[in-house]
Amino acid sequence: MKRFKNQNFLILFFISLSLILPVYSYKPLGTYAHSTALVDNKLYVIGGIDLSAVSVTFKNVFYLDLGTSFKVESPSWVDLSTDSSTPFYSGWTTAAVGGSDNKIIYLFGGVQYDVSHTDAYSGFTWQFDTTSNTWSQPSFSGTEPTRRREMDAVSDANGKIYIFSGIYDTVLGASVNKRIADMIIVGTIDKDYAYGSTTGIPLGRIDYTATILSNGVIVYIGGWDGGMLSYSSLSTYDTTTDTWANVTASGTSSLETRYGHSAVLTTDGRIIVYGGLNFNGYTPSPILIVLDTNTFKWSSPSTSGSPEAEPVIYHSADIYDKYMIIAFGNLTSTTTDPTGPSSQIYILDVDKYNWISSYTSSATTTTPDKPNGTSGPYTSTTSGSDSGGLSSKAIGIIVAVCVGSVGVCILIIAALCIGFKKFVKKPKDTPQPYRPPQHQKWAA
């Protein structure tokens, strides 16, 4: 009997050992100037820049499944960089979802480098099919837009994507830096490029946010057009009538203007703005502000909970259910220039203005997974003999677990080594943002 217990102990020991061995989980490096897009319950991240370590532009594509629960400090990222065969290293792009089934991520403009650090991809638009994980350059009718960067795209319910302005600079091949004042309309269903009205169009700008409301009006907040843009007079574009207008907003006396921030829209019409840099190149105050688009009144609500988001610029923010998800960005300060990229995400419950430490998906159930081929309650059974040495089945289990565990460890080490080599071989001297001059008056 004692020998039988020893057999069971050995089996449980090796199984437990396999469970506590480290399992590879993709952990992205700190990055900023990346692009994000939500497709169903997956938050995709594309490209970005890391200037704190090896000074590279990233070739990454990875996603976070918001249909599962996770700890905010350790989200379960899934890397698609190998499967998707991303054709370029990118940064300063903008992305939006379109197509007949809203499964296509369209990536616009930015820098697109090959392995020799040559800007070899001159096209304005790329598309990523999230069903097949493949990249391609779509063929659209109409005049292709001039490539640019540091702009923000939004999509409507009819498969159209709207992109205002951006900068065509020397990094992209221009002889002089130029902010372009136009409204690009990308028809992802009709496969065409069109342009909106220029009557009343504002000056070209960069590092702003664009938020499309339920009535089809796009609200533009912040950024730089040769000067810091006011929060009391907001540029808007009506996608249904192709008209530009200015809207007066109240409650701005205590708000610092900013650029490189983020914005999301809640279901009740609030635009939540986070981060960026102020006139002097420091963290703006207050760092989180809210525009109620029902009254066009600004406010700066207090937040609670933890972990509270770090101050960042050139990060991303997306809203899923009632949660604003802030990802990555360049860390800012109230006294110094940005210090380097973040590798963290932070999640805010927008109903309570509460930062959360654990994300619980509304799609997640508490029913444990069952082993394949079983039915009914999840039960565990043990087979074996009361006498003799370890049974052949027990030995098979131990051998399989040991071999499998060793194999997993080898694969982890190999993957990490290969990944490191890829990172250090990426092109250096990644272009900086076209940032306005800091600590002095803005250029005209």
From TrEMBL:
Hydrolase is among the record's keywords: no
Signal peptide range in chain numbering: 1-25
InterPro entries: Kelch-typ_b-propeller (IPR015915)
Membrane-spanning intervals of the chain: 394-418
Transmembrane is among the record's keywords: yes
Superkingdom of the source species: Eukaryota
SUPFAM superfamilies, A to Z: Kelch motif
Annotated keywords: Kelch repeat, Membrane, Repeat, Signal, Transmembrane, Transmembrane helix
Region listing for Disordered, in residue ranges: 363-387
PANTHER family: ACYL-COA-BINDING DOMAIN-CONTAINING PROTEIN 5 (PTHR46093), FIBRONECTIN TYPE-III DOMAIN-CONTAINING PROTEIN (PTHR46093:SF18)
Protein name: Galactose oxidase
Organism of origin: Diversispora epigaea
